[in-house]
Amino acid sequence: MTGWIQFRNVHKTFPTPAGTVTVLNNITLQIERGEFVAIIGKSGSGKSTLLNMLTGIDRPTAGQVRVGATRVESLSENQMALWRGQNVGIVFQFFQLLPTLSLLDNVMLPMDFANRYTPRERTRRALELLEKVGLREHAQKLPAALSGGQQQRVAIARALANDPPLLVADEPTGNLDSAAADSIFELFTALVAQGKTVVMVTHDNDLARRATRTIVVADGEIVNTYVARALTTLNINQLSLAAAHLKHQLYPPGAPILRQGDAANEFFIIVRGECDVTLSHPGGAEILVDHLAPGAYFGEMALVRGGTRTANVRAWEQSAVEVMTLDRALFENLAHESLALKQELERIIAERALRAARVNGAERA
What would the mean pLDDT of 45-64 be, rounded to a whole number? Predict the structure, then answer.
């Protein structure tokens, strides 16, 4: 298993008077450096607990959490405080700024605790970070003088004080209006472009879809990330339903998956490997019209518009292909429930039909 951040078979349980409650169940996950990962899920799904495992605020009942070469859960409290201060910046939903300190002093505080930089360097760095978030001119103000969005920007500047490679944010836009939330998201995006890794828990599906990757947590487990990536318009409940009914299929290199003219009974998402999409030529040959990579889907056209399969799909000659499938009834139910999904499918269908028509026309010419 590779990845800069690794969760390996992580479990988290809590004892209660009614018995043991499982909050995280066998979580295995990896995140690379420079990713912007959004974690979404219903209240109580375990997403904030997952974040607490990463930051060392809480420890797993079983399993491992690694950041680089560090086994986070194995650190003592003193080691944890030192490691966190040097490697992780945390942004909370309610800002957690000290109300009696100026913005400048709030940003300098982590540097004081970690004994990083000289006093003069701390002041200079804090002013530079406030400049980065657009608030340098307010450096001597108290937090109460700022709006919620501005306070969250200060909280991000504070999280960056010791130049950590990892920024972790728990519902950072939960108390902000849409304009302020967009501003915070854009700031995170800029930090990722500068090489930071951002892991953000959010309840906002629209913001989550704009991250590099979205991870959906339901009942303490990670919903298949390929479903969330392919069916981006579904809400959390719909994604969980789809993930619970997926079936895996494996095809060897070059094997046919769909044949033009066959009945349409399944929707396909590519997990591993690549696929060629072809049209049958009247002369018996096949015309290549598309090449699909992991995360792409196919088989939607006949399911949405009715009729039989309109193209052939086969595993690429150079690799085996692993796909996940949804049966026709569940796919149609999801498309019926989600207008956004239906509109997205129609857009993709129109693009693919136009591409096929152009390729077919060029071949015939």
Answer: 92
